[in-house]
């Protein structure tokens, strides 16, 4: 799309490979509220991955997206009032708007014989969806913080209180917030993976990479199998970051993995399992052990802290003795 054209409600802009589509849509049961957004085009269930006017719907089909005289994008309503306008560089000589095959909406200045200049891109301002090739993190040159914010509900794309982004420590840390409170953290990236992050193994579908330099700190992922359709979505209802993969046969999204995986991930509540203490090995039984200790504490009313006291058994020993005594009691009766 160039400055002499516009995109009205009912028209769409499609990526070259047909994977993504930009246009106007209605969310939920209301057909009056219209949003400008990007959705996946090759699947039967409309899945919106980016929204421009998240909290300012247009109440009819009069919306128009255009490039104004200064080379900036503007979304106008019937009255001509500006509904949405991103911050971009002014003074573009030949502004062009393109929807890339990655789902990135890009505004650039294309001058013959010169290198194209990037003016603005939607990947710098994500909504609730993290797409392959999209950076999540910081541009230190401009202090731009690329972070996800969940939809308030499945029908309302306005941001809820659940957000996900990168905190800038010595190593980048993937953190989820509820409002101003930290809800989940994956642990700092050590060059191989996040120290507190458990991903399904082996990972057949995607690869995560981290970049840390003087200009940027970000996490990005790429697909190992280009034919699969997948998104990472921040879900307000479940308070989870969910990776979903499209199942064409069933025509539905399947949750492949999610964070946090359980409530212990949220609050860090748990006990060290023996196989980890002695051998340094973590297994699914570690969480089972931790959950079991918590349940024993609740049932017995006794904390698992007698291990250091020579005159008392720890909680497991205490429960073991109780079981032995009860068996003796039943055998004598």
UniProtKB/TrEMBL annotation:
Domain of life: Eukaryota
Pfam families per record: B_lectin, S_locus_glycop
SUPFAM superfamilies, alphabetized: alpha-D-mannose-specific plant lectins (SSF51110), Protein kinase-like (PK-like) (SSF56112)
Recorded GO MF terms: protein kinase activity
Domain Bulb-type lectin: 1-120
InterPro entries to which the protein is assigned, alphabetical: Bulb-type_lectin_dom (IPR001480), Bulb-type_lectin_dom_sf (IPR036426), Kinase-like_dom_sf (IPR011009), S_locus_glycoprot_dom (IPR000858)
Gene Ontology BP annotations: recognition of pollen
PROSITE patterns: BULB_LECTIN
Keyword Glycoprotein: yes
Keywords: Disulfide bond, Glycoprotein, Signal
Protein name: Bulb-type lectin domain-containing protein
Organism of origin: Rubroshorea leprosula
């Amino acid at each position: 799309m160039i400055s002499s054209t516009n995109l009205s409600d009912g028209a769409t802009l499609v990526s070259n490979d047909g994977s993504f589509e930009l246009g106007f849509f209605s969310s939920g049961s209301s057909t009056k509220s219209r949003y400008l957004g990007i959705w996946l085009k090759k699947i039967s269930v409309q899945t919106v991955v980016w929204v421009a006017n998240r909290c300012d719907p247009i109440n009819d089909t009069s919306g128009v997206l255009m490039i104004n005289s200064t080379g900036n994008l503007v979304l106008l309503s019937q009255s001509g009032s500006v509904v949405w306008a991103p911050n971009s560089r002014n003074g573009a000589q030949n502004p062009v708007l393109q929807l890339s095959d990655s789902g990135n909406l890009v505004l650039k200045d294309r001058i013959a014989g010169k290198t194209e200049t990037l003016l603005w891109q939607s990947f710098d301002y994500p909504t609730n969806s993290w797409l392959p090739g999209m950076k999540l993190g910081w541009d230190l040159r401009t202090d731009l913080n690329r972070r996800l914010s969940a939809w308030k509900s499945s029908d309302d794309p306005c941001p809820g209180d659940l957000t996900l982004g990168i905190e800038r420590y010595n190593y980048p840390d993937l953190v989820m917030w509820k409002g101003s409170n930290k809800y989940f953290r994956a642990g700092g990236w050590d060059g191989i993976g996040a120290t507190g992050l458990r991903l399904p193994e082996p990972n057949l579908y995607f690869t995560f990479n981290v970049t840390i330099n003087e200009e940027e700190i970000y996490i990005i992922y790429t697909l190992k199998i280009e034919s699969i359709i997948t998104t990472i979505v921040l879900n307000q209802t479940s308070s989870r970051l969910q990776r979903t993969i499209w199942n064409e046969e069933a025509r539905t999204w399947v949750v492949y993995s999610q964070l946090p995986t359980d409530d212990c991930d949220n609050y860090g509540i748990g006990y060290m399992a023996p196989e980890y203490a002695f051998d340094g090995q973590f297994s699914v039984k570690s969480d089972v052990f931790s959950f079991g200790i918590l349940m024993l504490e609740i049932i017995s009313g006794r904390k698992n802290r007698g291990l250091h006291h020579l005159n008392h058994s720890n909680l497991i020993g205490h429960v073991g003795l109780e079981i032995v005594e009860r068996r003796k009691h039943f055998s004598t009766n």
